[in-house]
């Protein structure tokens, strides 16, 4: 059963790191946490959107167990198979195999039900570099001017995984996801503004990684709108940046954030392991009004 965001968070020591999102959670051993603590973590995830847990002792088995306590896990990725046969849920982002993430994106928005969130742990880090940044899509929506918010509320965007994953799919085959075995990537439509299913707050739900265009407008209009949304989403005041240390674990709410992994570490190897929480179909303002 998926936990909701109604549990109290006063069991946790939480240090906010940004005015809108991002927090460090101190004094929690995720591998040993009791049920009340896990429920508080789940509530803090929705409240702060991105959480960082230093000095954790997770391995592949305990990372999968943690994910299952926080929600229902998906397979590793619609296109990429798991890190090994024993851990089909773990997606390995390995710089030696083009696992970079150096484009602003929200995970797997090119499927009908994008993930609720992700849990990422550092496995091997370069001596310097490789930081990850997160943008708060809820704060970005709230700080748009009222006329632009009203326009965004009416729009629908197409999300297409072929640019990023089409070649990989053709060369290596796909993986299993909600709709069965992935053999092709069919573009999907999502509202440009997503209403969070737990909080009711609105976020800009477009990203440079997978959003191909705005539906129902000209190519020039689509390009202009998306460029404006992307520039606004990634303003410095909407971003927190994390410098990884060994043992770090990050969690984020995929429904209200974008992220970007800096590719600034040269030939050094960077390996991260991610598990993903199953989400639901995005709903826009027009659907609930």
UniProtKB/TrEMBL annotation:
One annotated Gene Ontology cellular component of this protein: cytoplasm
GO molecular function: 2-oxoglutarate-dependent dioxygenase activity; metal ion binding
The protein's required cofactors: Fe(2+)
SUPFAM superfamilies: Clavaminate synthase-like
Keyword annotations from UniProtKB, A to Z: Dioxygenase, Iron, Metal-binding, Oxidoreductase
Signal sequence extent: none
Taxonomic superkingdom: Bacteria
Chain ranges of the TauD/TfdA-like domain: 14-276
Family statement: Belongs to the TfdA dioxygenase family.
Name of protein: Taurine dioxygenase
